[in-house]
Amino acid sequence: MLMRLVVIGAGGHAKVVVDAARAAGIDVLAAVGDPAGARTVLGVPVVATLEEVEADGFIAAIGDNRARAEAFDAARRRGLTPVTVIHPSAAVAPSATIGSGTFVAAGVVVNPEACIGQNAILNTSCSVDHDCAIGDHVHVAPGVRLCGGAKVGPGALLGVGSAVIPGVSIGAWAVVGAGAAVLEDVPDGATFAGVPARDLHPEEPR
């Protein structure tokens, strides 16, 4: 029997999630979004609230980490079950763990004993090497390269094409800019960018 999924979100990222879910054999019943906006997402009807859909589970398909975390927590409080969606073209090692409600996009590689938290996004063609630890609500953007043993705290954003060397830690709710080369630990809440990556706001309190 096909799992019946509701997607929370109706924007561009929702399109990617709907496409991957279908490729994985999941029946997408609806997307929750603004009914005044798009009426469908890849042919899936857009509804205003979760109450309008009788689904087996949900996935939050919102690119912004804080908004996605809020949507995830709200759906959990309603008693709904988070569903992990993994595109069939992703390569996930059997010893890796993927948290509930996480999205793994096309072309992603997750290597042995990596641990991915809940409600995270591993976006198109990123790679997570052995023994990495990625927290809840993280967004690893397209083309990111995380080397072995790297750690990413909850809610962090790694921008498109950035790279993190082995063993480095990215703090909770930190931001790594597009194309950055991270060679040192990034504190909680910091914004690092450049090659090598440097703190853009070193004087600001965390």
Strand order of the largest sheet: 6-9-12-15-18-21-23-24
Number of helices: 2
The CATH C-level class name of the largest domain: Mainly Beta
- Measured between the Cα atoms of the first and last residue, the distance is 49 Å
Q: What is the molecular shape?
A: globular
Indicate the mean pLDDT. 95
Number of DSSP E strands = 24
Biggest sheet overview: 8 strands, mixed
Which CATH architecture of the largest domain is right?
A: 3 Solenoid
**H and E string:** EHEEEEHEEEEEEEEEEEEEEEEEEE
CATH superfamily of the largest domain: Hexapeptide repeat proteins
Helix content estimate: 10-25%
Q: Give the C-alpha Rg.
A: 17 Å
Structure description:
With 206 residues, this protein is of the alpha/beta class. It folds into 2 domains: 4-77, Rossmann fold (3-Layer(aba) Sandwich), CATH 3.40.50; 84-206, UDP N-Acetylglucosamine Acyltransferase, domain 1 (3 Solenoid), CATH 2.160.10. It is 12% helix and 29% strand. The chain contains 2 helices and 24 strands. The protein has helices at residues 12-23, 65-77; strands spanning 4-8, 27-32, 40-41, 44-47, 57-60, 85-86, 91-92, 97-98, 103-104, 109-110, 115-116, 121-122, 127-128, 133-134, 139-140, 145-146, 151-152, 157-158, 163-164, 169-170, 175-176, 181-182, 191-193, 198-199. Helix 1 (12-23) links the parallel strand 1 (4-8) and strand 2 (27-32). The longest helix is centred in the middle third of the chain and has 13 residues, at 65-77. The N and C termini lie far apart (49 Å). The mean pLDDT is 95.
